[in-house]
Amino acid sequence: MHTRNVKIIGTGKYMPKRRVSDTEMDRLLGVPDGWVRKKTSVRYRYFAGEETASQMGARAAYAALESAGLAFEEVDCLVSTSGTMEQPIPCTAALIQEAMGQQQSGVPAFDINSTCLSFVAGLDVMSYMVQAGRYRHVLLVSTEVASKGLNWQQKESAALFGDGAAAAVIGPSGPGEPSKILSAAMETYSEGAHLSEIRGGGSGLPAGSCDQTKAEDYLFDMQGEAIFRMASKRLPAFLDRLLNDAGSEIKDLKLVIPHQGSAIAMELLRRKLRISKEQLLYITPDHGNTIAASIPMGLHEAASQGLIKRGDRLLLLGTSAGLTLGGVVLDY
Length: 332
What we know:
Blueprint (H helix, E strand, L loop, with lengths): L5 E9 L3 E4 H8 L5 H6 L3 E4 L5 H16 L8 E4 L11 H8 L9 E3 L6 H15 L5 E7 L10 H6 L3 E9 L7 E9 L7 E2 L23 E2 L1 H23 L8 E4 L4 H10 L11 H4 L6 H11 L8 E8 L3 E8 L1
Parallel strand pairs: 4-5, 4-6, 11-12
Antiparallel strand pairs: 1-7, 2-3, 6-7, 8-13, 9-10, 12-13
């Protein structure tokens, strides 16, 4: 067990102004009425218009700081835990700092990227920095603009995703406080590395090499069924190891906050992992899949709606491109 006396002090989120209904998505995708909701369960998702990822992240960050009762001056580190980048250089965290109007602050800003599990990875890594006293208050920001990289020919994945940002402030737990991180784990199986990817834009297929790349190389490519088969095969044993390390069982969990996929995938995984309907927080119908922002967005919804209280045991769980499995067990 790797217990850390670290707590989530405050959370926040920001959704773009444009709300896109399932009926509008039916028209955009050229599919029969009702197809999008049947395939994905998503009634609404949000698409960024003029908002940049860093601007959305800045708004979510300030909402989290307000929730935590802190000013930016009390933040020791800003980490972007996003799966998509606003631009290749500089890191997104630097652009979020700029969008927050804190260009002169000197607060260290860097990215931790594990695609859809970026927030989980960032929470795990930075909690050790807080535990060690290197930083006191760390601001984690997940901000995603999925809509600009969708492949509209891959209708099922295009119908599922949405844009948005979520943030959390973490800090040390005080004496006698119940909040702590009990365990965290990640496992990567790169046999699935090319099941979810954007091939173009890096050094493998540089943006300037037009003679070597095609337009679809710069769009999101996902083989959803293959990913689900891999994940469902490996997740039960992974979860058993994670809970065992935390000294917990499924029945001890107040809430499970997963990376948000389609209703069909969530239901199948819920049954396979023996999670009750009451334990599972499912926000996809009103948000879509917001990549790495989906887990902190769920955490924010749980906190703001009063679904969790201090001391409640939570599980953050998901998969990401890689293929990677990841999770954190914590006492909120």
